[in-house]
Specification:
single chain, alpha+beta, five-stranded mixed sheet, elongated, binds histidyl-adenosine monophosphate
Length: 432
Amino acid sequence: MSYSIPKGVFDLFPTTGKVEDEWKLTHHWQHLYEEMRSLSKKYGFEEIVTPIFEKTELFARSIGQETDVVSKEMYTFQDKGKRSLTLRPEGTASVIRTLVERKLYNEMYCHKLFYLGPMFRYERPQAGRYRQFYQFGAEVIGLDSPEQDVELIDLLFTLFQNLGLHNLTVYINSIGNAQCRKNYREALVQFLTPQKNKLSEESQRRLEINPLRILDSKNKEDQKIIANAPTILDFLEEDSKLHFEAVQSLLRIFKIPFKVNTQLVRGLDYYNRTVFEIACGDLGAQDTVAAGGRYDSLVKTLGGPDLPAVGFALGIERLLQIMLAQKCSFKPRPVPLILLIPLGELAKEVCFKLLKQLRVHDISAEMDFSSKKLKHIMKYADKKGFPYISIIGEEELQNEQIKLKHMTTGKEQVILLDQLVLTLINQIQNGI
Ligand code: HAM
């Protein structure tokens, strides 16, 4: 019996010999998590952690029964108490559920929250599309100003800039309020119905249940037809129009380049007014790296007060894959500063105490416990990339002097045994 990883999921690990697996290196993920956490804090966001699974009806109610996510892609199961639970396909619904359940809205007029973690969708796996994938998301509840929409887009854009990314396009659109969408839906159905037979099978199905989603179709024939369809911007009511104009002028002030894409409708039902996506040409078919928008009625739908909200989520795998394709720089893999290699029982005892002392002084260190042949230990030191090693045997103990070897230059420095901590602290201060 051999065990292998299920389809559509992946491991993260500290090393890999394969270029195609480089995006799965744990320290790259840590690097991104650190950047995301520190930038979110700079923008006043606080971290929220919600469970991996929720009651199924939460997602059905918020994302929408007719959406692909709810109708085809959810990992739904019954627990032993016969409750229907679902692995979260996204983070927004859970954040709003927490806010409403805990009545957090009574504490202050606005909440700015961010999250990092795995989401689950039963999709056809391919590069950039997985069944367990990770999102960095941010949600603001309580504010309906266009500044808030732009602050979120700016957070994403600044994150991408800080990470060294280029070749990104910000697409924005407004899908107005429920009435605008109803009017537009009617106009769209009227436009598409006479051409129904030319539409793809999927779009014909959507024409009945969710015609706006036809605008998203990747089918070439569909796209030709859609190109002449009426645009939603002509159906916006005055407030949505003003809001959308303000969003655009604020983006210009922030010098964030954007394109209005009137076919951008998003695949989740909770949106209204501003919707946006950030795409990267380097990513191939799955080129949307982050997406979001306003969802001003979700808090109420889930039993809370009438509070506006807006947010985004970013796909971490996709972001990492673009960064690697664009040769962005990453923080190096963190490795301990020194490997102590004792030779003999007495040296083992001395080194073990020294090891503790180093760590107490905040110096990351390891010691060889294997007593394997030196060539094996040296291979380990080399592979893991220790900057320093020190081999400590009887002679070193007698003279109370050790050799500190710098692994890249090969240079050796003789120091007093009891000076090791101090010497390494100095090395750290002066750059290794
Ligand atoms: P979404 O567009 O479904 O929006 O997902 C956001 C991002 O998650 C996508 O742009 C993509 O980068 C990534 N993503 C989605 N599905 C997969 C997958 N199967 N494999 C890899 N990456 C994937 C949401 O999830 C909304 N909750 C965003 C939001 C937050 N809107 C308001 N607040």
